[in-house]
What we know:
This protein has helices at 30-40, 54-67, 90-102, 114-132, 143-154, 158-164; strands at 3-8, 12-13, 24-25, 47-50, 71-73, 137-141, 169-174, 180-184. By secondary structure, it is an alpha/beta fold. The chain has one domain (3-184): Rossmann fold.
Amino acid sequence: MNEVVLVRHAPTRRDATRPSTEWRLRADAGGPIRDLADRLGPLALDLVVTSLEPKAVATGRGLAEHLRLPLTSEPRLHEHDRGNVPLLPDAAWHDTLRRFFRHPDVLVFGRETASEARERFRGGLVAALERNRAERPAVVAHGTVMSLLVAQANDLDAFELWRSVAMPEAWLLGWPDLELKARIAGDGARAAPESGPTRPER
């Protein structure tokens, strides 16, 4: 294997009664998922791996069904652990994320620093790929941890990368160097970052 595809999940439905780790996809997410699957078809993927969060699982299931691929999961692919963070207004949320990305070794919010989240995600990615031995897998995960990992490997501004990634969007990466070779998003993808958590999660 010399390439892997990272996929940010499809648009979610905010639910004030649930923690963000339990948010589900929007009712209209199926179209963007199918559109992205069509665009990924020429890459000849052979496996879909997801985090355990429902939005990633549902996105991965949609891709796997459309492309007729096996589906599996890896627990360490979850989003930055921010379960102790209440709902923030959009402006405050973006300011918090800007500080989070620019001070990776400081615990800005949540239960992980940016560096800790990046290395945990990297470990989960390596474990999933070594365990499944796929030739060209798609890994469905989350915008923050994806941006942390790929920005470091490509000398990019992680905050600006996070701001730009759509839901859903796929990144074709070299492996294991993580060189960003292409960004792939369907016509129905939303180019806005997901909002912050609704309430403390645990």
